[in-house]
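Form 7-S
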Amino acid sequence: MQEEIQKKLVSQVDEIEKKLLKVDEDIKEINKNIENNTKRINMLELKLQLNSISIDFTFLLTQFQTEQKTLFQVIKNANRGDLDPYVLTPLNLVEMLEDIQPNLPEETKFPFYPNIENAHKLYNIIKPSVYLYNSKIIFILQIPLVNSKTFTLHKITSLPIPVRKNVFIFILPQEAYLMIDNNYYEYMLMSSNNFNDYCEEISKSKFLCKQVQQISFVHSSTECELTIFKSTKELPDSCNKRIMLLDKPIFLQLQQPKTWIYAVPESENLILNCGKTRNTVPIEGSGFLHVNEFCSVRASNFVLISLVEYTKPVESNYSPPFNLTKFLDLSELDEFEMKISRYEQMILPFDFEKLSKISYVFEGSKQKLASLYYILLVPIIILVFVISYLVYKKKIDARNILNSNKIFSRNREQPPDNSLNEPDHEKLQIRVKLNKKNDEIKKISVHEDQSTTDPDSEYLTVRFKVKKRQKY
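Output:
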């Protein structure tokens, strides 16, 4: 009984041992799997880190490309004369100008006061320049300075004044623009070309102009325009008075919208259509015409259309209360009318029927000349053709003569010629004596040429090719 129990116990111990071995193998397998999983986890972590680095690098590269494009665009804008806020932010610009302003030269200032509200205006007037120095991009800002005085800009336009029927007088302006300060102390006349080249609109009804000519004093000026501005009691001799003979109405559009200067030789009735209302306004002589922007103006023979839209605003029009006819010498006008009538007498009595007959004669002469032209053209063409043919034939003959002076050559072995022993006065005989017995003549070439010094003489050049005879 005890043996059975012992055997059973041994069997159980063996079973337990086997199970322990199995457990050990399972533990080893688990450890191996853990080790493999650890390697995989480490690889995944490495890939995640590499992906993160790649994403960061791609972001930095994209940001660099964006910054590079922005920088290139900023440089292009600077070369074009535009300041980009990328170079200098509005706040930094205002702070910089505030620091500079106390140190500006006397009686000068910035065109706009440096503050955030005027920052966009300051950007428009600043002209940048860009340079590369020691691998650094340097921007230089050119900021215009203006005089502390403000000048009013006037566009000068002549207003014709009627004197007699169809006769008007006007003053021809010296320049197109007049600039005068608010105290009427200093002024400057400027031409249209200078105004377009040196004046820039920086805001509504405000211009920035470079001083390209001197500024004069009003009190000592004798200019016609300034004298009229100062006083309307006298007309200086510097005024360029012109007399105009007008046979039809003229309307000159001003810069103010729907505003014209008119001059009509006879009374005209203008029809104003303003929506549902229609009015007839008579005009005569000369003056100003201003209508509402929704109104149209027409007359019996013409229509007024505001073709030009001016972007530069006009604050007001000024016409000095000046009676130009008061300073007109009527003798000059009488002399002008006498000249006009004299020219009319020279032109009007002309017999236009005679002129028509003369034109018919000229037309007939034209036709005769045309027929004569074609008659002469045919023999001229034939003569040119004959001359061309003769010249061509002469060239062909000369070419044939040159081709006859060719080179004759004989490359095969010459048989012995016994006729050389007999003299023949019509043939050219040449005897050749070889120095060596084994030599033989293999090639003879004869060149026939014409003498360059004497065209009637010819000469022959004979060449021999000697080769050693082969022994068999």
